[in-house]
Every structure is written in structure tokens, then in C-alpha cells.
Amino acid sequence: xxxxxxxxxxxxxxxxxxxxxxxxxxxxxxxxxxxxxxxxxxxxxxxxxxxxxxxxxxxxxxxxxxxxxxxxxxxxxxxxxxxxxxxxxxxxxxxxxxxxxxxxxxxxxxxxxxxxxxxxxxxxxxxxxxxxxxxxxxxxxxxxxxxxxxxxxxxxxxxxxxxxxxxxxxxxxxxxxxxxxxxxxxxxxxxxxxxxxxxxxxxxxxxxxxxxxxxxxxxxxxxxxxxxxxxxxxxxxxxxxxxxxxxxxxxxxxxxxxxxxxxxxxxxxxxxxxxxxxxxxxxxxxxxxxxxxxxxxxxxxxxxxxxxxxxxxxxxxxxxxxxxxxx
Length: 327
Known about the structure:
Mean pLDDT is 93; it is low at 1-23. This protein has a six-stranded mixed β-sheet with strand order 7-6-8-5-9-11. The chain is α/β, with parallel strands linked by helices. Helix 6 (173-182) links the parallel strand 6 and strand 7 (185-188). The chain is built from twelve helices and eleven strands.
């Protein structure tokens, strides 16, 4: 009888042991505001695929797009709290780290090759350390894109055409200053709220790269697309407080893969520009060129104020412009 009881207990114990769940796999959360099919979405998914293949089960990187984990501002707060592991901020970085206002200067970045030189010779040596002091570790520099204006009122050709236009802009003081200089009435608003604001007339227009405009279906609620190309905005794959809790091997895999993605992102971005512009035209948007010389002239006050207000601001602008002349 005793033997039977002991045998039964061993069987039960073995059953309990067999049914016990394995230790949960470490999840690395990456949040961004891009819609499905956007540049943010495509790059993040490719990044996750590459990282997870490299990690081989040591951890898993999961992507949460479409503002599932909050707006850009929310995501940066969560990075500092450690409740989100990675985010892909763009303009909003200029609100928290003053030097990042460099990328808010109108017509500063000539093209993607110029941006790559700025990234390697200015951003990483001078700007990334400033971000890290504020709790943000820049793992890689990806892209948001070249920004253009859409609206429901009229074709925008010169800055004065923006007079009185209610324009949604992302969080960042320099974008507000820029469009005030152009005569518009700019208001910061979370990306997830833009479609409804345009649909209801709360906003007349907005400005974004093609890779945000098309996936967000703004063509359904906007008539005009004016090719201002007023700002090239990078996006920064950024870690925060939780970074230190990951094993060094996991950190290495994530950080190295993030940098390996940089040329991949730029190539994909260029391809998507052509594809999305065609799709926006096919969707019925009225597309027009603008007088860029007039916009650049109207931008001088923004350059002057940044140079005076931000320590090292003028030096950064001069270095960036000089890199634009490099072969």
C-alpha cells in the first residue's frame, strides 16, 4: 500500500513538473506611430525579422505600430520610465534635446547622401552624446523623410499662400516657428489624431513625407499636395531606461542590426517616395511644384533664432551646410 502511494505521488509530481510553464521569453518592445505599409512599419518589421533571427530565442523583438503604445511624446516618456524598450521618434526629439533642432532647419539636408554624411560626422559624434545625457540612447539613424504640405484650400506655391491655413505639425517648437514665418497657423497634434482633424475641418492641412501621407490615407480628406520638400526628418531608433536590463549579447545583436539597417532604410525610402507619389496622384490629389527659393528666403529667421538660442547651433548649421558641398 505504501509503495503504491509513493508511486502515485511520483507520477503526480512528474505530471506537475511536466506541465510547468517554461520561463517567459524576454520581449523587447519597439513602438512607433507609423501606419501599416509606412516606411516606419516596413523598416521596423524588417529590423525585427533580422534581430530575432540573430537572437535565436534568447529574446524576441516585437513591433507595436500605429501608435498602439502611444504618441511620439508618450513613447519618449515610456522610454525614460522603462515601460517601452525602443521607439522611433523623429521631430519630437527636438523638443527634448535642443541640438536635434538642427534637423528642423528648412532645406538644410540636400539629399540622402548628404544626410548620411551629417549622420556620421555630426549626429553621432556631437548630438547622440547630448541625447544620452538626457536618457536616450540613439542606436541608429533611420528616416522619416522629406516633408511636403497637403491641404484642402488651395495650391501652395509661395509662403504667402499659407496665410491663415490651419496646419497640423508634429510636436517641436522649430516647426511651429517655421510655419509661422511662412504665414500659416500651425498647431501641434499627435499623428494618430490627424486624419479626423482633417476630415472634420479642425485642420485645413498637414505636412509629412509621402511614406506617411499615403499609408495614413490622407488623400481621402485632402485635395492638394504641394511639393515643398521643406524639411528632411530623420528618425532615431532609440533605447531608454530598460536597455541595461538586457544581456550584453542581446544588446549587441540589437545595436549592430540597427546600424546595419541604415543603408537598407535609405534605399527603401527612396523607392517608396516614387511609389507613393504615383499612388497619391492616382488617388486624385492635385500635385504642384513650389517656389523653393521663396520658401528658403522666408526661412532665414528660423536659422537666425536657432543660431542664437541653441548653444553650438550656428556651428552645427555651418558644419552641416559644408557637408552638403562635399563631393
